[in-house]
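User: Some background: our group keeps a shared notebook of sequences we're curious about, and every so often someone picks one and asks for a predicted structure to add to the entry. Today it's my turn. The entry only has the sequence so far, pasted here. Could you supply the structure so I can complete it?
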Amino acid sequence: MIALLSIIYGSFYLLFFKKLKLFRESTRNISIFVGIGIVAIGAIVFAWWTFAPTSIDGRVFRYVIPIVPNVKGQVVEVPVEPLVPIRKGDILYKIDPTPYQFSVDQLMASIDQAKAQRRLAEIEVERTTELVKASAGAQSQLDRWKAELDAADATIASLEAQLGNAQWQLDETVVRAPHDGRVVNLQLQPGNYVTTMPMAAAMAFESDKTHEVIASFSQSAIRWINIGDAVEMVFAVKPGTVFTGKVTHIVRASGSAQLYASGTIPTFTGAPAATRWVVRVAFDDPEAAVDLPQSATATNLAVYTQKGKPVHVISKVVIRMSAWTSYLTSP
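Assistant: Of course. Here's the predicted structure to add to the notebook entry:
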């Protein structure tokens, strides 16, 4: 764009000095003309970079969820295919349910046994109550059977709680997709053993829940950017198309200045830091961004601030030029 501005300004030389001959081609006049051009183009470029900054460091991001099962065991089935879109709740893989089914069956049998003991205690309470009323039984015997009845109720409640947990574990042997999305780099196969350790995720799941872009800007370029500013973007995978959005977050922080508790004293080299800050952008039309894959690169991204609106046209031209040049092979 600077070259284009220079060419446009150079055309005025041909117009004023050659065609209309308004000025004589002297060293003084040419020097003045060149000096005015440098100042004018410099001022325009400064306003452009300040009030309509652009970035070539942008990309689509999506949440990648490590799929860690809630129960451990041997994988018996993996019906999902890599990179094939699936819906929330679709089966990713199944863990051998046999040991968990045993626990459920055992607890159900224990509950049946406890219920039988409760029924016996209930019958004895009714019988002993009648005997006590007829002065033919001891009150202590009635109290003992009432205690047996309460104990049976407590046992049943405890076993039912254990059964609920066992049934939950059995259900968790079928691992399902947490969102709409796809599995990336699927290596899991039947026969693998999976655990509940977060560091041993069985697969990576790319969620379609978020369609947003992150882009980095220099700290000087970001100072006039505010949440809600309009954005235009061009992606290499969609040449000829200009996507629009809005700034949703501005992250004025960087890991390069992050301190950790340690026994090491920070070292400074004196070299100037070139830390960039991040702007997060949401698409105006999320449906238009569905086909943009995770990590799709924005070949150019422009933010239109609330100031210097006359120079916004420069970034608009640059964005549209980038959209069409994206048909060419990117470096």
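Suggested note for the entry: Helices lie at 2-19, 27-51, 98-133, 139-171, 312-325. The mean pLDDT is 85.
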